[in-house]
């Protein structure tokens, strides 16, 4: 189906906020009936189309446990631009058996927000190529999407065009990996047209790494070369591993972590962090990268899950996790050891992704964000 940009944003505001824009011009086969959703979404009349194959069967994982706390330090850099008012609150660390409220978060000083660029189509994710360019997954109002580039000076370009509903992006060596088929309709109807693609930074050669995925959203690489993707909607939302030795055989490793969306591997490669979107509460889950089906540590963030609409996330050098709340228009900082959380920036409508700067011209102490409104912002931490 083809939607105007206004209609797309309207659908998001109405409750379809998942960290994946609606398909722009890509028909998706559907099942005869809608599967149940994690949250209430306003019903939309759909045409009856031929049935399609469902997603792969899932593997049930072990119960969750709480990790041993540690307290990270917070890196800061000089502030610039206009301040955004913060708010502070306490989070809840949960296990499968009980919930324990931890100590309230310390006062959180607001980060400074400035606009880097705007005028893009719907932006889903970002990464840095390490050579001075920011990479953006863009879905315009009409036609296929693209992996766009942006320089620190604001010059826009295109790395690869003709990308159907691009999602997560990650860079390995001289190649950029990104997902396709990351749209709401594919998730709702369990479409299996999603892929992971690879394109060279030097020659621009493009190859398909994996096929048959349902709404692949977040994308991350493990130290052993395996890839992970998240799925937020459908019969079996969760986490899928794509083995480096045989990427043609993706394996669903968890279906017990809710409407999985944001995904990031810690800098030391030991922990996989997963956020959610459509559940009753917004949760950050920490998985052992060496045992993805093992115990899970869960931190529950303040506020109702559907209103927050958790989206992409990243990890700082201090161990803190930074998560975009798409629906709430905020970026929050979470201590995964203690469960303490605070808002570092507000007033950022439809924020979909966050990453620390990398490469020439991009401040490594600042967070950069993308939004469904086509904007890119910089969040600069307060001066020490």
From TrEMBL:
Q: Which UniProt keywords apply?
A: Signal
Keyword match Signal? yes
Can you give the residue ranges of the SMP-30/Gluconolactonase/LRE-like region domain? Answer: 146-357
Show which residues constitute the signal peptide. 1-25
Q: Where is this region: Disordered?
A: 50-71
Q: Where is the composition biased (Low complexity)?
A: 55-71
Q: Which Pfam families match?
A: SGL
UniProt xrefs under InterPro entries:
6-blade_b-propeller_TolB-like, SGL
Q: What is this protein called?
A: SMP-30/Gluconolactonase/LRE-like region domain-containing protein
Task: State the organism named in the record.
Answer: Rhodococcus olei
